[in-house]
Specification:
D-Maltodextrin-Binding Protein, domain 2, 2 domains, two-stranded parallel sheet
Amino acid sequence: MPLGSRIGIVLLLAGLWPAAMQAQPREMALVTGSSTVFPFSRAVAEAVGRAAGGERVQVASTGTVHGFAQFCRGAGLGAPDVQDASRRITAGEFTLCLRNGVNEIMEIPIGFDGIVVAHRRGLPSPDFSLRQLWLGVARQVPQGGRMVANPFFNWRQISPALPDWPIRVIGPPPSSGTRDSFVELVMAASCAAAAEIRALPDAAERARACTALREDGAWIDAGEDDQVTIRRIVEGADGVLGIFGFSFLEAAQDRIEGAAIEGVDDTPETIAEGRYPLSRPLYLYVKRPNLDRVPALRDFLLEYASERALGREGYLARLGLVPPSATRLRMIQDTVRDRIIMLRRPG
């Protein structure tokens, strides 16, 4: 790929490409967003490149939140064509897209992932309830009929059934869709059941209390590179936990393993069936008009929706994606073939 083209793509993803250049056609399809989806999109991009005899798709790992900000920046060729997402687009993000003229969006659920709570292999593997995880990482917890600063610094303080480990959790940063999903599935769900939270009169105050993570060193924001988190788990003290997507656990299972959640282990089967409590779908969001403007984008979507990529025996499953059922795969292929767009604002 010519140096000038690479510089242009970097500037575009940073939002710095001049308007005159953004109006020009481009050969390269641009994908941004989730670090969890990144390995899958990169593998598809590499397959497209091999078939074409050269790089056709540029994939960047920026995090779901930042990715949507880039994707929704505009409808032309001066913004990414595809947004990888580890959660569904929010109503606010959808509104931002519409405000900026991005009003023909294809939503493609590509499969499933689980959020894992991983520790170094060889240690006793805990079984966390959602409430125990919340009590471990929340900034405020209920005690004595009111919300107080989190007093717990060892998991055994929360339950005698948990290991005698200091509470030290390396988790996804605010830019990550994995963090959004963790807050929704663990924090908000557990917090809402607390009488002390229900007693708070202000809805905004309840929301803040239910979503705020610790800032005293027990919770550590990682970057978007989950491989760094894995190294910190392996090289850190006993009991350091990391929170990230299942595919990264699969790729490093010789060094780390996941804790059970509510008595359910993280496996492809429990994630696909929804029995694992931290299961979630993964998505692609695509600007339909760009399919006619960027030929490489069509090739990228067709490859993504193929049996060889997304099927049960496909290469994405070997990378750790929990693939869709045969029926869901046919629906994905219909969406790609017919270029079906979202018709309803997400709830």
